[in-house]
Amino acid sequence: MASHKRYALVGTGGRAGMFINAISDTYAEHCELVALCDTSQVRMDYHNWRRADRWGYDPIPTYKAGQFDRMLDETAPDTVIVTTIDASHHIYIIRAMELGCDVITEKPMTTDLDKMKAIYATIDRTGRALRVTFNYRYAPAYTKLREVV
After folding, report:
1. Which residues touch 62 (CB under 8 Å, ≥6 apart)?
2. Is the dihedral of CA 103, 74, 38, 121 positive or negative?
3. Residue 59: pLDDT over 60
4. Partner of 24 at 20 to 30 A CA spacing, among 32, 50, 104, 129?
């Protein structure tokens, strides 16, 4: 699996599912989910259970939010996916880039101008990449609306 792109995900609430599903199924040939990080062990355990039940995966390591740096050190992801609450996106985006990872985050990238400036300064300083996604773009109701229109 050395050629797989390695992902760690922080924030295992409702937004995380689309990423976990894509990495575990649709793009499994090229991607690997290597760790989960959250304030809730129950949510992380649920995602490990679901991956095992649905696709036969062994559990991946889980880390509490305060163990974020340790997670990156121990699991060496290429990219960190940030799906935490919006007000904390900047914390994980900046730290992941400082520790050598590219980042994918959910919209909004952050919640205020100072946090945005800090993120862009980190991009300039580290040369890491940031992609901002919009999970509702693929929500079934919006997909159906596009079909109707």
Report:
1. 35, 36, 37, 38, 41, 44, 45, 48
2. negative
3. yes
4. 129
Residue written as token pair 């649920």: 46
Classified as helix, coil or strand, 106 is strand
Structure-token pair, residue 33:
């989910």
Q: Which residues on neighbouring strands pair with residue 32, listed in sequence order?
A: 6
84-132: per-residue pLDDT in tens?
998 999 999 999 999 999 999 988 888 899 999 999 999 999 999 999 9
> What does the pLDDT read at residue 1?
46
Name the residue type at position 4: H
Range list of H helices, 9-112 = 16-21, 41-55, 68-75, 89-98
Question: How big is the CA angle at 30 (ends 23 and 124), to the nearest 5 degrees?
Answer: 80
